[in-house]
Amino acid sequence: MAIIEVTGLRKSYGGRTVLDGISFSVEPGEVFGILGPNGAGKTTTVECVEGLRRFDAGTVSVLGLDPRRDARAVREAIGVQLQQTQLPDNLKVWEALDLYASFYTRPRDWRALMEEWGLAELRNARFGKLSGGQKQRLFIALALVGNPEVAFLDELTTGLDPQARRSTWELVKRVRDSGVTTVLVSHYMDEVEELCDRVAVIDRGTVVALDTPAGLVDRAGGPQQMRFTLHSGAEDPAAIVAAVPGVTGAERDGDRFTVTGTGDFATAVTGALARNHVLVTDLRIDRRSLEDAFIALTGRPLDR
Ligand SMILES: Nc1ncnc2c1ncn2[C@@H]1O[C@H](COP(=O)(O)OP(=O)(O)OP(=O)(O)O)[C@@H](O)[C@H]1O
Q1: Model pTM?
Q2: Which residues form a coiled coil (predicted)?
Q3: Domain limit, last residue, from 174, 198, 218
Q4: Which residues pair with 254 in a beta bridge?
Q5: What is the pLDDT of residues 89-126, one digit of tens each?
Q6: Do 154 and 250 have their domain in common?
């Protein structure tokens, strides 16, 4: 059974539609990404699911509960790291954990959580003195303190430097490995590609695609290319390459080859050449990225 089931979710503010029939479901144990540009409706969507915002139409089920009817039960079962969550600067790390634990009827032992997430040595540090990465570590621990089955992480790495972003990604993988289903809201392609099992791409209040990151890239359509130079080999590479599944074309210019294809054809081509003892050099694969997929789906780059 899906952990979260959203069907035909609609919401408008003052007559302006911001969610125009959003549907998706989240399976147990997965990291489910919600990707889209600023203002697409990502936060509104997750806050409707969390029971924090009212919606106008559609149905939402979280662990079989309706957030409109059973808001309290839903809040007990989920962990939320709100976007730009702020705590008072003078609150100590242990006080924040203790405070959040008090919101739940069956919280985790926050002292153990503090150890687990490497916060023990920061227990008396004040929130305002923490680095960006340490704050995110604390926010994740706070999202887990209620012992949730689902955690919502919203724009977790916005404003962090590249190193802190990477360490925060490792934390998200730990959350996933601990068996907690995770909904990750992001407007970063690389983050979604690295962390998510499946992604709903939201644009202007609708889901324009829902697939694995690799599936989205494939859907960007159009052939991909690989290029190589023939180094040595008895066989004619053109014939070998043409027989590989997924290959849609091959061109030869002297010793230079350009092969076009779809799916994972490049791996299959390299394998076929190696099996036939054809040595190639200067191998280049022009992979499509999630960014290409986004442009193909929405007609514009993510950061516009
Ligand atoms: N309380 C509100 N009142 C009026 N309009 C709102 C309100 N909250 C959000 N909006 C509008 O709804 C649209 C969707 O906002 P939302 O925050 O869900 O987008 P988002 O995809 O999460 O973007 P961001 O990444 O910038 O947070 C935006 O145009 C926003 O201005």
Answers
A1: 0.81
A2: none
A3: 218
A4: none
A5: 999 999 999 999 999 998 999 999 999 888 999 999 99
A6: no
Local structure of residue 187 (DSSP, 8 states):
S
Give, using CA atoms, the residue closest to atom 10 of ligand 1: 13
Residue 115 lies in a domain: yes
Instruction: Pick the closest to residue 181 from 197, 200, 164 (CA basis).
Output: 197
Region 47-65: mean pLDDT is: 94
How far CA 148 is from CA of 62, 151, 175, in Å, comes to: 12, 7, 11
CA of 199: how far to CAs of 34, 79, 83, 215, in Å?
6, 20, 19, 10
CATH of the domain at 184: 3.40.50.300
Q: Check pocket membership of 38 for ligand 1, CB cut-off 6 A.
A: yes
pLDDT of residue 78: 94
**Residue 44 Cβ < 6 Å to ligand 1:** yes
242 Cα–ligand 1 center, Å: 50
Ligand 1 site, residue 298, Cβ cutoff 6 A: no
Please state, in angstroms and rounded to a whole number, the distance separating the CA atoms of residues 287 and 24: 28
Does 303 contact ligand 1 (Cβ within 6 A)?
no
For residue 270, pLDDT over 80 is answered with yes
